[in-house]
Amino acid sequence: MLNDVEQTVSELFEEASSILGYDLWNLIAEGPEDQLNQTEFTQPALLTASVALYRLSLAQGLPVPSVVAGHSLGEYSALVAANVLEFADAVALVQKRGQFMQTAVPVGEGGMAVVFGIADDQVIAACETAAQGEIVQAANFNAPGQVVIAGENDALNRAIKACEAAGARRVIGLAVSAPFHSKLMQPAAEEMASLLGEVVFSKPEIEVIQNVDACSCKDPDVIRKKLVSQMYGAVLWTDTVARMKSMGVETIVECGPGKVLSGLVKRIDESSEGLKINSQATRMSASEALCT
Predict the structure, then answer these.
(1) Residue 42's closest CA among 56, 57, 31, 58?
(2) Secondary-structure class of domain 4-104+184-290 per CATH
(3) Which pLDDT does position 69 carry in this prediction?
């Protein structure tokens, strides 16, 4: 017999699987890995895991957050947490989001790279110089001295060289299937806009800071429009964390697989307490830190 924790997770994954048309838990547990790594499968998996961990945390006594935010795909998890989106709608949306993003640019015709060690404005200038009529731009402002760029291959390569010439400590190509958060995603955004228009968005019960402007909004229609813009606009994560700090937030909890965001939080503001919930052990640790 399943315990309460197992039952909560099982029910959420069963709900996701019924919407997606395949066994999501089995795909995560058994693979094949190359299928799971395809963005149309990765996105529902990450969303479901993040929401499951969040709901378990609340059920076991962690306080309701005063504000939520998510990095790229994670914005959908944040909107579910704030009761703007129903979980079932979010799962269906991110499955399509992954499909649209993957087909917007043929595989091999675009990419992304992370630039370390130079200022945001230097990265932006390098991309502008390198574009030469093609598309390359800053896609994720992750932390001071860490910016991801995205674009067409030739323009991306020129931008990498320009960043290196500007003094970048290193530039690392990312193993991604498309140039996300660039203007090349506008066809995907147009398709997504149509789908989002069919889904009910509610007024947030928790303040949500969105990627495209690092601002919160109570108007469901504006929140919906920002999700469309997010697909081809930059993720302003540095500004998002700064906005939370300006609101008096002292502890930021990363809820979901991995620990990248809690690391970025510390790089953005060393005074912030960054916790993570990605397992039973870290959930217990976070509970002790937040509830004592």
Answers:
(1) 31
(2) alpha beta
(3) 97
